[in-house]
Design a protein that fits this description.
The protein is built from 10 helices and 8 strands. It starts with 5 loop residues before the first strand and ends in a 10-residue tail after the last helix. By secondary structure, it is an alpha/beta fold.
């Protein structure tokens, strides 16, 4: 295998699904599924011995919590990216996944093409949440009247890219600004939105209709 081939480990306690996903990943160009794990201990052992680039992690395992397994993996191997799959979502799950070092959270059972793209492009320093999961958390009752003058146009651009899971480096590149300047905008956003994390800033902005999710009119 050449070094540019992504080595992927699939963790799911449903063996048939894990095997099917492993086959699909190996059929993709530029990816190799190096194996499957069906529990928390097996997953951490395989990560230690096989050193995957990306782990696709089911959030619910028979013998453990996929988010806590993610935390163990990212603590032991910060260079390994973890994409978490979930059938159910709440804001605490997203917060825990971000805190555990996951790079993305996707709906389990979503389009295979979207999963493959997320595995291929999973940000090393960002945190991407699928729009379907974000929409599920933004109930009509929680949406307030927009306050368009709160943010500058540039802050909106930065916040929109954060909502797409971009990290400061890729945001800076997309906007033609320095990483230091981008981090300054992010700090300003956290203050203006009274948020303690980038994820919380995105959630607040969506509820206040300061930005829109991708594919929204």
């Amino acid at each position: 295998m050449t070094s540019d081939v992504l080595r992927v480990l699939v963790v799911d306690d449903h063996r048939t699904l894990a095997d099917a996903l492993c086959l699909a990943i190996s059929a993709e160009g530029g990816m190799e599924c190096i194996g499957t794990a069906h529990g928390a201990r097996e997953a951490t052992d395989l990560v230690a011995t096989a050193s995957p680039d990306v782990v696709v992690m089911d959030v619910r395992l028979d013998d453990g919590d996929g988010v806590e397994v993610t935390r163990t993996i990212t603590n032991d191997r910060p260079e390994t990216r973890v994409v978490v799959l979930t059938a159910h979502v709440d804001e605490s799950l997203l917060t825990r996944a971000a805190d555990a070092g996951a790079c993305a959270v996707l709906p389990k059972g979503g389009p295979l093409t979207e999963l493959m793209e997320s595995v291929r492009t999973a940000p090393r320093d960002g945190f991407a949440v699928h729009p379907l999961l974000l929409r599920a958390l933004i109930s009509p009752a929680s949406v307030s009247r927009p306050t368009p003058d709160l943010l500058t146009a540039r802050e909106r651009e930065v916040l929109t890219l954060l909502a797409e899971g971009r990290d400061p480096t890729t945001i800076a590149r997309a906007l033609g600004i320095s990483v230091l300047t981008c981090r300054g905008y992010i700090k300003s956003l956290l203050v203006k939105l009274d948020a303690h994390s980038q994820l919380e800033a995105v959630m607040v902005a969506l509820r206040r209709r300061l930005i829109q999710l991708p594919d929204e009119d």
